[in-house]
Amino acid sequence: MIRVVLIGGGNVAFHLQKALHRAPGISLRQVVSRRLESLSDFESGVPRAILGAPLERADIYLLAVADQAIAPVSALLRDKDGLVVHTSGATGLEALEGLRRRGVFYPLQTFSRKRALDMAAIPLCIETEHPKDLSLLRSLAAALSRTVVELPLDKRRHLHLAAVFVNNFSNHMVHLGQAHCRQQGLEESLLRPLLEETCDKLGCMPAYDAQTGPARRNDRATEEAHRKLIENPLLRELYERISESIQETYD
Amino acid sequence: MIRVVLIGGGNVAFHLQKALHRAPGISLRQVVSRRLESLSDFESGVPRAILGAPLERADIYLLAVADQAIAPVSALLRDKDGLVVHTSGATGLEALEGLRRRGVFYPLQTFSRKRALDMAAIPLCIETEHPKDLSLLRSLAAALSRTVVELPLDKRRHLHLAAVFVNNFSNHMVHLGQAHCRQQGLEESLLRPLLEETCDKLGCMPAYDAQTGPARRNDRATEEAHRKLIENPLLRELYERISESIQETYD
């Protein structure tokens, strides 16, 4: 049985505690947060504590907190014998200051509280400072997910950057289109079948092959007409640079 | 029975001829293209002709050609009595030079030849110069799709621009992430669950509500770390401007 204490009350912590609570071979001993209210919708059978109160003894302390909070929170764990890991894609081991046994446990996913997520399908990227800690962390990861990869900081950062494009930036493009539609008094539902087909195509072919549109076919007249329609200077610049990037891609 | 001649051999023409061939109340009289080879995978029961050969008599001539080809192709139709419509989202009636009865029939979708598409789910945006032609064009559209909207050029252009963000630009962001992964020697399949969840979220909430990530939470340290990882100057600029746009959105 791997004993785990989970620290954090955000979306990542929320989904992790749900999965940890159910996973075979894992004993979730305690969930901890700066504010007890953040834990109000957590699994009811798990003891809760406020950050700063005494922590349960554990094999692994899992820090699912904001990147900037990793260092201050880890300062509270200096007397612990267990392995301490954070869940950040962009942060190295050094953020876990002054700890003897350090590691990373990065789940590659976008976490929204309201969404039901299947943790078993989420890639878990792990790293430990000492090789002897790796098998413990691997066991924890394997109890939760079918996909466990060992990745050092450099590779993990690049993967995290790729994830920002795949999720955050693509999502923002959809938002900009939906917002433009609303601003023009057009029914947003007109975009729905296009959005569905966009997603369906991405599900069965590389995005490279799925590309269509004015920039893809070097249609400068349409680009110029679009440019003139955009009033927000940052949006206009985005339109130009992204079109340029599409043209660079297919040159 | 509405008699239709379809001109064009590209992806839009391909999907239109499939739907027209099957639609009740429509008689697809002829498909026409600059090159007969473009028509080789079109429905076998429909007569084919090369552009410049005599055209069948029709109630509606449907020009599913590139925007720049609309004017030169419409010059071949000056002696026709039928209604001539193009399928461009960004082009006005004036491209149909010297024709007496003009209109637009813009299907809002991304068309790839290999994909099976349900035309009934695709919004068709229509416009005619003369009000008396509107009911004819509306009948054609209604025979193909459940969603038919009358939109003048100005509104259609804005909708087309929104569609570029929702499809072309979001797809390109996914490509950039997938390409970055490959370049770094990372398994592209690691991004798959994230891409699926990105799409699932967009299917059930506005993109505005789905946003997560460093830019959304104003995490400047991660942004700076990512910036340093990007070698391509255009890509780095994209990263900065899109992050800025996300921050502007949630300010």
Q: How would you describe this structure in keywords?
A:
homodimer, 251 residues, alpha/beta, 8 helices, 8 strands
Topology diagram in text:
Two copies of one chain form a homodimer.
Chain A: E1 2-7, H1 11-22, E2 26-33, E3 48-50, E4 60-63, H2 70-74, E5 83-86, E6 102-107, E7 124-128, H3 131-144, E8 148-150, H4 153-183, H5 192-204, H6 207-210, H7 220-229, H8 233-250
Parallel strand pairs in A: 1-2, 1-4, 2-3, 4-5, 5-6, 7-8
Antiparallel strand pairs in A: 6-7
Summed over residues and divided by their number, the pLDDT of chain A gives a mean of 97
Evaluate the radius of gyration of chain A.
Answer: 22 Å
Give a short account of the largest sheet of chain A.
8 strands, mixed
The arrangement of helices and strands of chain A along the chain is EHEEEHEEEHEHHHHH
Side by side, the strands of the main sheet of chain A go 3-2-1-4-5-6-7-8
How far from one another are the termini of chain A? 55 Å
* Bulk shape of chain A: elongated
- Which pair has the most extensive contact? A-B, 91 and 91 residues
Number of strands of chain A: 8
The parts of chain A where pLDDT drops under 50 for at least 5 residues are: none
Assembly category: homodimer
Tell me the helix content of chain A: 40-55%
* SS-derived structural category of chain A: alpha/beta
Percent strand of chain A: 15-25%
The total count of helices of chain A amounts to 8
